[in-house]
Amino acid sequence: MHTAKKPEPEIPEEVESPDFAKLLPKEIQSFTTHGVYDEGDNQHLSFTQGAGHGGSHPHLVHAFVDGLVKGTSPYPNAKQSANITCVGILSHESAEKGGEIIKLPEFTFSK
């Protein structure tokens, strides 16, 4: 976790991400705690580095497929996804420019 207002060597702080696999269908619960590749040398880098995004990927896929099956809008929907992605891109751009504030654009979508 990035923690602000600390001296440089103390900024990154390791935290334990809770596992919410119990909220998923039983068939995909195990994918929140290990890689989706084989057990050998073909592990995804996010898992070998100990992150795995807190097991978020199965939840995102389940929400998307569940929305398709039920005919509902999943979370995150297209607008929210664009916003989240843009925040990451602009954060990187800001860091490359010494922390310059870069405003998020307004997203409009037609149905």
Question: Could you explain the architecture of this structure?
Answer:
The protein is mainly α and 111 residues long. It contains 3 helices and no strands. The longest helix has 19 residues, at 78-96. It is flat and about 45 Å long. The N and C termini lie far apart (37 Å).
Keywords for this entry:
single chain; 111 residues; mainly alpha; 34% helix; flat
Strand content: under 5%
Order of helices and strands: HHH
Radius of gyration: 18 Å
Structural class: mainly alpha
The best one-word shape is flat
Distance between the termini: 37 Å
Poorly predicted sequence stretches spanning 5 or more consecutive residues? none
Characterize the largest beta sheet: strand count, sense, and whether it forms a barrel.
none
- Percent of residues in helical segments? 25-40%
Number of helical regions: 3
Total strand segments? 0
Q: What value does the average pLDDT take?
A: 80
